[in-house]
Design brief:
- This protein has 382 residues and is α/β, with parallel strands linked by helices.
- It is built from 17 helices and five strands.
- Strands 2-3-4-1-5 form a five-stranded parallel β-sheet, sandwiched between helices.
- α7 links the parallel β3 and β4.
- α9 packs across α10 and α12 packs antiparallel against α13.
- The longest helix has 22 residues.
């Protein structure tokens, strides 16, 4: 993957090239950006640039990097056991799948990756086995005598034991060893590692960059490309799934609308609480990654409703398909007097699900709170 293959983020490309050309390459860098902003494609392009500009056989180096098979380009990423890998899963056991995944979905999310290896109902992690594998890989001499690059994707998924085991290596890496940690949430990375990395924050992709990429890669019309780009919120992965009518969003919409309709009816009606219990049980049957994605979808839905409520139609992109549901009629129930508390409660539910809390209890608790919040009146303007 070359820099030209990375969508937008030209100022970051220029910065990375400039530091490399001046020989001012930090030994540990943290690429921070939300899903679909391009941290992983940029990390791969940067690694290729470092490896191939110093290679004695640049063309051969580019071919190996293009196949993600360069012996001095290493990867670590969240994994878990599946049908092929029963015990002690580490990234090296999934490299063939990883190369295929990057080829098909370079902007893919963790959920997409877990789907790809058939474990979307589990959470991917990097544990002490992964850390030991990284240490072992980087102790070896560079195959081509130049840089060794270790790309750690979704670095926030390292558990404490793994992070602590890597701490010394990141602080004092072997000669010409470069760490690139990609993260969507730097707050989940332990401070002792963050403090040893130079952070680069990736902004959302522009609508123009997303639209041009869709026209170039997906061969869609200009009007369709810009419509999808407007809905993507700077996330190219979301743009791809929107373009191809990602089925999960349709399911999420059904879950969400059922939820809020039931929550509206539940106030003062104990019999309806049983429907919220049944709803919580249904969502709890899905995997934790699916539950977290659904709650992120809920946050987006509430925010879009509030924007519509405050006459900001130009930045409202959500289009519902459920018969009988009108976003304009729902919008007045999401306002300045409840949006912060709704956001806080949904985010708290995501936090507890992430930490293996009982999903049924968490979702039911959230549902009961939502029943009160949706009936909160907007503060009168004085």
């Amino acid at each position: 993957m070359f820099f030209k293959d990375v969508i937008g983020q030209n100022h970051i490309k220029d910065h990375l090239k400039s530091t490399a050309e001046r020989g001012r390459i930090p030994h540990a860098q943290l690429f921070v950006g939300k899903e679909g902003f391009g941290t992983l494609p940029m990390a791969i392009a940067y690694a290729q640039y470092l490896l191939c500009t110093t290679s004695k056989d640049e063309e051969s180096c580019k071919i190996k990097c293009e196949k993600l098979a360069h012996p001095d380009m290493h990867f670590a990423f969240p994994v878990t056991s599946n049908d092929k890998v029963k015990r002690h899963p580490i990234s090296n056991l999934f490299l063939e799948d990883w190369r295929s995944f990057i080829k098909e979905q370079p902007y893919g999310s963790l959920y997409n990756w877990l789907q790809f290896i058939g474990v979307e109902n589990k959470q991917g992690l990097m544990g002490v086995d992964e850390a030991e594998s990284i240490v072992k890989s980087l102790k070896l001499k560079s195959y081509e005598g130049g840089f060794k690059v270790m790309i750690i994707w979704m670095a926030e998924k390292m558990n404490i034991s793994a992070a602590n085991k890597l701490l010394k290596l990141i602080e004092e890496p072997p000669e010409n060893t470069i760490f690139i940690l990609c993260t969507e949430d730097e707050e989940q990375i332990i401070n002792t590692i963050k403090s040893r990395c130079q952070a680069i924050h990736f902004p959302a992709l522009s609508e123009e960059d997303i639209a041009q990429a869709l026209m170039r890669q997906e061969k869609v019309s200009e009007s369709a490309a810009y419509k999808v780009a407007h809905q993507a919120e700077g996330n190219f992965n979301k743009a791809i799934h929107t373009l191809h009518h990602d089925s999960s969003d349709i399911i999420f919409e059904t879950w969400f609308i059922t939820w809020i309709r039931t929550a509206f009816k539940a106030k003062g009606n104990a019999a309806v609480i049983q429907q919220l219990v049944e709803w919580s049980e249904e969502i709890a049957k899905s995997g934790r990654e699916t539950q977290k994605r659904f709650l992120k979808y809920c946050l987006q839905f509430f925010r879009q409703a509030m924007l519509l409520n405050y006459n900001s139609e130009s930045i409202v992109f959500l289009e519902t398909e459920t018969a009988g549901f009108d976003l304009k009629k729902f919008a007045p129930f999401v306002h300045s007097n409840n949006i912060l508390e709704i956001t806080d409660e949904v985010s708290t539910a995501m936090y507890h699900i992430e930490r293996n809390g009982n999903a049924k209890v968490i979702l039911l608790d959230l549902s009961i709170k939502l029943t009160r919040l949706l009936h909160t009146k907007e503060a009168a303007i004085k």
